[in-house]
Amino acid sequence: MKSVEQHISDVLDLVDPLDPIELDIMRAHGGVLAEAVASPVPLPQFDNSSMDGYAVVAADLAGASAQTPVRLPVVADIPAGDPSANAIRSGHCARIMTGAPLPAGATAVVPVEWTDGGQVTVAVGRSVPEGNAIRRAGGDVAAGSTVLRAGIRIGAAELGVLAAVGRRSVRIHPSPRVVVLSTGEELVEPGRPVGPGQIWESNSFMLTAAAQDAGCTAYRHGFIGDDPATVLDTLDDVLLQADIILTTGGVSMGAYDVVKEVLSRSGTVTFDRVAMQPGKPQGYGTIGVSKTPILTLPGNPVSAFVSFQLFVLPVLRRMRGLPPQPLPTVHARLAEPVTSSPNGRRSYLRAILEYDRSGDGDGVAFTALPAARQGSHQLSALAETNALVVVPEQVTELAAGSVVEVVKLPDLA
Ligand SMILES: Nc1nc2c(c(=O)[nH]1)N[C@H]1C(S)=C(S)[C@@H](COP(=O)(O)OP(=O)(O)OC[C@H]3O[C@@H](n4cnc5c(N)ncnc54)[C@H](O)[C@@H]3O)O[C@H]1N2
Ligand code: MOO
């Protein structure tokens, strides 16, 4: 059987970051920058006031105090956005608002609270240091300097920076279009009645949502039965909409494992058994003239979910232009003992991971409580958990209190 690490490496080899496109900055939200962004201008672009008050020559106020205020004539009124202020001379001042350009000649701004607020003349009851309440040109960003590196995700702060340096559009790696298709003759659309031996289809809903949570544009194509010609036709149909295709089901050893049957014939998709539980049967490769990547995940719902977290997420990250790192892991203390069958497969046990401050002293600040139901079909247990306890390939049991590696599943934003 193939190792988990080898399979991650094989699936990552299928994809490259998607070719960049230019988008309006608002639509670029959540995307990954495909260029370094520099500011064409200094920020601020001009010296300006950081307070509402009076632009003065600081030396004029050297002797000012509450008892002996200095009175200055107010020769101008400068709101934000007013570029027309004349220079002020010693002995004069200008009323100025926050963000308004500092008039030439002024060396400080006196906040209005230090004055009587006069509009013809103003009495100032304090001296003021040179440069007080002045925001200097270039004090935030020097002209030509890089403000955002290529490869970062555009969140709220990054959008603010893009707009502040005057960008209207930006080059980003587009969000991958993920098409999710499930297979299985027994499947029925939720909301419709199920007959004997049938089940409601759940994998395609779950994986479409997981791909959306991972920043992709995901489409649920739904499900099809086990007819080989229908599988091939449907894959052909979705090729145009997809940067990557995910399927579930039909990849193990059964007589009707149709995905494996039809794609094995293509010669471009490989089917392997990965040394893990759940998630053993995995297929990966490309299909169609455009060599669209396809990952065929096992049909058991928990197996499909765990396969998505371990293999699909890094692939989607690489397509988005992000480093394809796996989900983060932490060390945690097991709250209960666990067993794992001695089959050379690494187990990923669904568990509730909780922060535990009492463990801080020896560096293990989490506990992991494994779910009671660990079957690959036991989807309800999965929904209660937030982490995967890793039980190494050769380990068959672990006592309560053992320190284990735990994969943290993605949090919802
Ligand atoms: N003889 C062997 N049998 C099986 C092996 C094996 O090595 N030898 N491997 C087992 C493992 S491990 C897994 S995982 C499954 C994977 O099987 P398939 O990928 O072929 O999936 P199916 O047989 O189509 O379905 C498995 C199971 O999951 C249910 N299912 C499938 N699709 C959906 C869906 N979209 N929504 C909800 N539930 C779904 C399906 O009804 C089956 O119960 O094979 C084992 N067998
Ligand atoms: O590996 Mo299967 O994925 O055990 O359930």
TrEMBL record:
A GO BP entry is:
Mo-molybdopterin cofactor biosynthetic process
Residues annotated as domain MoaB/Mog? 179-318
The organism of origin for this protein: Nocardiopsis mwathae
Which family is annotated?
Belongs to the MoeA family.
Could you tell me the EC number(s) of this protein? 2.10.1.1
User: Which cofactor does the UniProt annotation name?
Assistant: Mg(2+)
Provide the alphabetized UniProt keywords.
Answer: Magnesium, Metal-binding, Molybdenum, Molybdenum cofactor biosynthesis, Transferase
Q: GO cellular component terms?
A: cytosol
Name the pathway. Answer: Cofactor biosynthesis; molybdopterin biosynthesis
Q: Gene3D superfamilies from the entry?
A: MoaB/Mog-like domain, MoeA, C-terminal, domain IV, Molybdopterin biosynthesis moea protein, domain 2, Molybdopterin biosynthesis moea protein, domain 3
According to UniProt, the reaction catalysed is:
adenylyl-molybdopterin + molybdate = Mo-molybdopterin + AMP + H(+)
What NCBIfam families is this protein classified in?
Answer: Glp_gephyrin (NF045515), molyb_syn (TIGR00177)
Q: What does this protein do?
A: Catalyzes the insertion of molybdate into adenylated molybdopterin with the concomitant release of AMP.
What the entry lists under SUPFAM superfamilies is as follows: MoeA C-terminal domain-like, MoeA N-terminal region -like, Molybdenum cofactor biosynthesis proteins
Keyword Mitochondrion attributed: no
Q: What name does the UniProt record give this protein?
A: Molybdopterin molybdenumtransferase
What the entry lists under InterPro entries is as follows: MoaB/Mog-like_dom_sf (IPR036425), MoaB/Mog_dom (IPR001453), MoeA-like (IPR038987), MoeA_C_domain_IV (IPR005111), MoeA_C_domain_IV_sf (IPR036688), MoeA_linker/N (IPR005110), MoeA_linker/N_sf (IPR036135)
The record's listing under PANTHER family reads: GEPHYRIN, MOLYBDOPTERIN BIOSYNTHESIS PROTEIN
The entry lists its GO molecular-function terms as:
metal ion binding; molybdopterin molybdotransferase activity
